[in-house]
Amino acid sequence: MYKNELTERLGLIALIKEDFNCHRRDWTLPGFRALALYRYGTWARSRRPYLARAFFSIIYIVLNRFIRNTYGIEIYHTARIGRRLHIGHQGCIVIHQYATIGDDCVIRQGVTLGIAGIERGETGSEHAPVLGDRVDIGVGAVIIGKVSIGNDVNIGPNAVVLTDVRANMTVMAPSPRMMSRTTLTRPNIDDEKLEE
């Protein structure tokens, strides 16, 4: 049976209230809905007896598919997510089942927290990212593998993080390269037909 220490200690309703306040008290935001469902999933998977756990888990599975397919936010109930996570926008957000996220973090659209690769046998929790408290992740950032991110870290848009990051750091993607644009001359299709 799965147990989430945070849910057991603070309670499901208290956590959802914190997340609600963190999402501007707007229950229609996809980020809040996904997070509230995650909280419910961690609670449902720890119920006793087995029949109650099975009943609540079926509801969770159905709603989880709806959130994933409608909003593009995939969060597994086995991930370890701290308090007051803010999911800024919907779309293409994947949080691996073994990822750990600290308190007061921000995640924007297109973010992936995942393992390095199943084909290399890296599937356990020891291969998933661990984020500290107050980590701010920009649009399209990817954090892959056995990576530890310290407290108060900013990860810029489209950054790919494959190594540990110390506390109080900022990680940015390389700046774009400027290349001269050459004008290509394309042969006229009618001229080619005439030559044949």
From TrEMBL:
It comes from the Bacteria. The keyword Disulfide bond does not apply. GO terms for molecular function: serine O-acetyltransferase activity. GO terms for cellular component: cytoplasm. SUPFAM superfamilies: Trimeric LpxA-like enzymes (SSF51161). It catalyses: L-serine + acetyl-CoA = O-acetyl-L-serine + CoA. CDD domains: LbH_SAT (cd03354). Its EC number is 2.3.1.30. GO terms for biological process: cysteine biosynthetic process from serine. InterPro entries: Hexapep_transf_CS, LbH_SAT, Ser_O-AcTrfase, Trimer_LpxA-like_sf. PROSITE patterns: HEXAPEP_TRANSFERASES. The keyword Repeat applies. Keywords: Acyltransferase, Repeat, Transferase. Belongs to the transferase hexapeptide repeat family. This is Serine acetyltransferase. It comes from Phyllobacterium brassicacearum. The lineage of its organism: Bacteria, Pseudomonadati, Pseudomonadota, Alphaproteobacteria, Hyphomicrobiales.
